[in-house]
């Protein structure tokens, strides 16, 4: 009998290859703790630092993508309806019609 042909390894999609934000952040916190303890040699510390920089870059890119998604959803999904008294134009209202409650409006805030 002949052996069946070996199966090709399954290709991972781009989505499954990238670590999730929470996983990256958790690993980054581990690296920071290891570096703060100071028990690593110079070469190991440098490798940890490089990994941390790469994780930080990835986290920032993911956050930018999340922010863009929230802003896109906010444009269409969070428009006030005509009868909502919290969004009536007038004094004491922050940018976008929301009551300010003494908090300055942040143009970069998603809500």
TrEMBL record:
Keyword terms: Cytoplasm, Exonuclease, Hydrolase, Nuclease
Known EC number: 3.1.11.6
Protein's UniProt keywords contain Hydrolase: yes
Reaction catalysis annotation: Exonucleolytic cleavage in either 5'- to 3'- or 3'- to 5'-direction to yield nucleoside 5'-phosphates
One example GO MF annotation: exodeoxyribonuclease VII activity
Stated family: Belongs to the XseB family.
Protein name per its UniProtKB record: Exodeoxyribonuclease 7 small subunit
Species: Saltatorellus ferox
């Amino acid at each position: 009998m002949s052996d069946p042909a070996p199966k090709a390894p399954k290709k991972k999609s781009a989505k499954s290859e990238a670590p999730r934000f929470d996983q990256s952040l958790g690993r980054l916190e581990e690296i920071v703790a290891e570096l703060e303890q100071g028990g690593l040699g110079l070469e190991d510390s440098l490798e940890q630092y490089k990994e941390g920089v790469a994780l930080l870059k990835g986290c920032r890119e993911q956050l930018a993508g999340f922010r863009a998604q929230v802003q896109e959803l906010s444009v269409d999904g969070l428009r006030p309806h005509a009868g909502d008294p919290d969004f009536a134009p007038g004094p004491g209202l922050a940018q976008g019609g929301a009551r300010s409650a003494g908090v300055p409006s942040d143009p970069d805030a998603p809500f």
